Amino acid sequence: MRKKRFGILTAGGDCPGLNAAIRAIVKTAHQQYDMEAIGFQHGYKGILDRDYSVLTPDKVSGILTVGGTILGTSREKIFKNEPGDERDKPGIIREVYDELGLECLVVLGGNGTNKKAYLLQEAVGINVIGLPKTIDNDIVGTEQCFGFSSAVTIATEAIDRIHTTAHSHNRIMVIELMGHHAGWLALYAGVSGGGDVILLPEIPYDIQCVAKAINKRAQQGKEFSIVVVAEGALSIRESKMEKSKLKQYLSRRPSAGYRVARAIERATGLESRITVLGYVQRGGTPNAWDRILSTKMGSYAAEMLFREEYGRMVALIDGKIDSVDLAIVADKIRYVDEDDRILIAARSIGTCLGVEA
Amino acid sequence: MRKKRFGILTAGGDCPGLNAAIRAIVKTAHQQYDMEAIGFQHGYKGILDRDYSVLTPDKVSGILTVGGTILGTSREKIFKNEPGDERDKPGIIREVYDELGLECLVVLGGNGTNKKAYLLQEAVGINVIGLPKTIDNDIVGTEQCFGFSSAVTIATEAIDRIHTTAHSHNRIMVIELMGHHAGWLALYAGVSGGGDVILLPEIPYDIQCVAKAINKRAQQGKEFSIVVVAEGALSIRESKMEKSKLKQYLSRRPSAGYRVARAIERATGLESRITVLGYVQRGGTPNAWDRILSTKMGSYAAEMLFREEYGRMVALIDGKIDSVDLAIVADKIRYVDEDDRILIAARSIGTCLGVEA
Amino acid sequence: MRKKRFGILTAGGDCPGLNAAIRAIVKTAHQQYDMEAIGFQHGYKGILDRDYSVLTPDKVSGILTVGGTILGTSREKIFKNEPGDERDKPGIIREVYDELGLECLVVLGGNGTNKKAYLLQEAVGINVIGLPKTIDNDIVGTEQCFGFSSAVTIATEAIDRIHTTAHSHNRIMVIELMGHHAGWLALYAGVSGGGDVILLPEIPYDIQCVAKAINKRAQQGKEFSIVVVAEGALSIRESKMEKSKLKQYLSRRPSAGYRVARAIERATGLESRITVLGYVQRGGTPNAWDRILSTKMGSYAAEMLFREEYGRMVALIDGKIDSVDLAIVADKIRYVDEDDRILIAARSIGTCLGVEA
Amino acid sequence: MRKKRFGILTAGGDCPGLNAAIRAIVKTAHQQYDMEAIGFQHGYKGILDRDYSVLTPDKVSGILTVGGTILGTSREKIFKNEPGDERDKPGIIREVYDELGLECLVVLGGNGTNKKAYLLQEAVGINVIGLPKTIDNDIVGTEQCFGFSSAVTIATEAIDRIHTTAHSHNRIMVIELMGHHAGWLALYAGVSGGGDVILLPEIPYDIQCVAKAINKRAQQGKEFSIVVVAEGALSIRESKMEKSKLKQYLSRRPSAGYRVARAIERATGLESRITVLGYVQRGGTPNAWDRILSTKMGSYAAEMLFREEYGRMVALIDGKIDSVDLAIVADKIRYVDEDDRILIAARSIGTCLGVEA
Q: Which domains can be identified in chain B, with CATH numbers?
């Protein structure tokens, strides 16, 4: 009798912990349940291109500490076609799924990837299981995604470094971190890096309020400040713009960090410098905690395969590994909440969040 | 009218995050609630010696990233006296508490420190609040203690380094980590470092089982193995010894790592090398996640002060910051549990835990 | 009899190792030669403002590992005045020097700072000793400056991280590092980070040559490449522009990394992404090697004070600590040389340096 | 016509930078000179066992950052046989060398490995080139060996961590580092980690002198001290023992760090704690500077192959890559010298080196 078989792919932006999760899924499935994993290359694209191979335990040995994903990734759109492309992509996926005799497709990805998995299940009836990976930590249904812990660590180290220059030069140092929609990364790294001002997409900022916080520090003899800005942060005025107008407005201006630095200089007269951390936040060896979270989640996903708990995403709920219905996950973003403990803590130690508390 | 005043001290072994917690308590208390902090030097000893000073927000500025504790620490016994010392220590503590007009004593420490706080409250009626710090992560009532995250990170980096030597030399590398009673550190670092064998105080090991796991790897062409050992790990035979006999037995032998390495050599004939990581696990800059946990917990402790929630310890419960009655915490140890997800995950990916699964 | 006294200041951009050097100078001067150090705040500005204090050994204790400079820094122009400022700045410096009874002024800085020291000596006859600090490593007369080793380490870690994203996404990742005039940092970090293309200010690049190297890799199945660009790198065409025209041209365009990324996309059709590492390169704890170089150089500077070897800068010559006449150092830049071993090594392992070898 | 062919092996203890050097040799030889590399597995053992394969540029791609050695290593004795083994090992090596049509054997190793290469050349007339790798940095003829820079960095980070515990607990922390014969690692890491006492094999220590330094610090209010000990450090009394007696004496006692900690406790009455860093010092990703040194040295070795400069070891001489006759290298150890600048600097800032200065 043939072994139970499942497919596995990674899609969307890469992040630390993907390989650790792949390893845990494949090893657990093999050793505990005698199932076989088929790895698709470059996300959903690998299904469409029939680009796959069997992932033996041997192939995932030694990848725990390796950044990125051994399966490669892409941002393939499976419900949209380029002009001239007449393929029925969901149909092809169903075809390949059947050809290979898969019982389930396990996808590791962010909001988009998990949403696609959910829609595939609805559209062509295949079984899916999702795992939440993103340094943005903005997937609904889980308290943490893997990749986030490493990104916070990397961003914190960068803020630590910038601190000494701010101090030595008596300057305002602005550091822009990733986070278009949700400000988790800026908030966590801002708190752990000791940022004096933290600006998030969720809380449109009043530059006068920021200036006041910076000036207050200067009056206390601290003539430098660290300002942590999520790339999606907007001023109150910007946030009130009509959507298409805002898009146009932003396209003609440099990124959030630059806009904030310029505005601070105008409002305080103090010299400001900007750092955009960029892709460094997303790459490299996963830290210990992402390896652990990925290993727990990957091992749990294999259990779900065994128990045939389909249509769900592995999740951290009340601090424990569990799962959540993909219907709840799809098409939503988890935002920083006013009563999140980290936000309360940031405020209570005197961090400026861009508006009067 | 005088400000509300509280005392603060750190006791037991130092660990990363103490200063971050002190900073969050003092800043929040000052800024949110206009309370004043009195810092005692070197733990409970500082109360007995009347060695203290006011902790202004300025004094805790810039300490977020600094390892150790600015208050110093000691292992002062407050319910026991050396011969010739006739002091009524709890009485003196009550005296100083009253002299300074304290409303509460906030203690940052491990099992011993929190137990002493509880006993003081019972014995002399002072108000206390505890915070859980220990790299052992073995305090009952909280899912995580600060210091643990940094220790896991440090130990993981050490295992990563040892991996390459094991591989290049085809050797068994044994690494001994801290953890006399509970194996959390060895278990977490073992999983994140990809340890092939992990031996904990909670699970007495069968050396034949360990040898089998190592030999199985050798048969698969992996002629090296990483063995992670908590310092309190015992073989099945050792664990069955009568307590005083065991103590004598252990006193005549080197530490757990050495005993395991020797036993592996005898059982497999393979060359084994030992590393005892030691104090490196406990010192230095807290990692991002300990800074965050400490800041959340410290800020919460200040809220408890304001709400006069005494006799409790700040805790992580169901992934959220909360508090727990010190009566529940005192005099117990939180052990690794058979159905802990990390243990299940370790087993499911094929890690040997010293006995047949 | 009064102790022999000298002044000390740090000027220009801050960098790792400044505090380690200050510590070594002050400790050696005090302990070996019983001399007293006067520390000026914020570079030359501290002399003009009479902002100084005695640096006792105690004040420099514990600063070895601290980034930035405890003396602060500035870019004060001492041979130029703002409109309305009629001060004779060199005259004031001479005045303060005499008032304080200094025997020498020790300056820690880059090209500009050491040049000013030389000109001060020529203009007002004070004794000076220079120490070479800059992450650009471009001071003439020394084989290495402190700060450089840390910057190479930081930049290498960033490249390591970016590598995994490049690999997972099959993308061209461009990383822009500091270095306006000299490309040492980009070259060293490029080699240690395994950059496939390295573009330096000293070697104007031919984008077709870069594209060829990238395409060749793609043909070998490596569909990603890492391109390391110094911020002062120019294309051949740009490098031939008349100076004022080039300035205008550059002012209307984003930085070197962006220009290179755009040009690569046009020439290869491959998706390119850019990271500008920025101030992270310059801050934070000095690495072990900058601490060592700073300690050696600082201790040597104190010996020079004792031997009254004035008008010279501490330097690394033939791998040994020595000194060089400031007349040789002033007003020059040390460029990457065609027969530098690191350049030869980079070429010989197949790294593209922007032009046909 | 067949390509020019050479053999390559790594022997002795592994260390960071071996793979970077292998990569540079193979890539340069292939791309610049069209030569072919044969890699032997596990050092000289791989020649005796005819365990080898062609090292194509592809096989060394991506190994720059990988710790250990892809060729494996061993401590095979080629001029000595176990009882019952009658093989003429040098003869076999000559045989394999001829069979494969090698023009030269390139060995990467420490004192022993380079000595064996020299003796092989003398004994059976094969051509050899050596490269100096060792974290001990004790090979005669070169100012630096690769592996050393990473080891100093790792040991420095450990000392940094231990510092905070020493400070928080007012304790003497003793850290034992590798270095049986030469104390380079302890000396460099001791200086960069800010060790208060540094004990080397080259300078037998007087424990009264050490105690005096520690007590002096305590009088200045610094009730903690960091003591860095090379594993080969001896007290004056121990160093005067007759060799065989010393061996016996040491075999009955724990390592140098333990002996020093015990002696300090006896002499000062202060609580001392010991850390033995062990194998962590030798493994893991090479730091930026070892990657650079290995790349320079590897590329230079390939040039030497081309120029047929045999019988020599690549070396750093006067800060530049060069080579030295293996006859000079063989059978010697490079010790820390009294007039080495790092030793002078350590003394001049007040570090105790175990004897009165």
A: 5-146+286-329 (3.40.50.450), 151-281 (3.40.50.460)
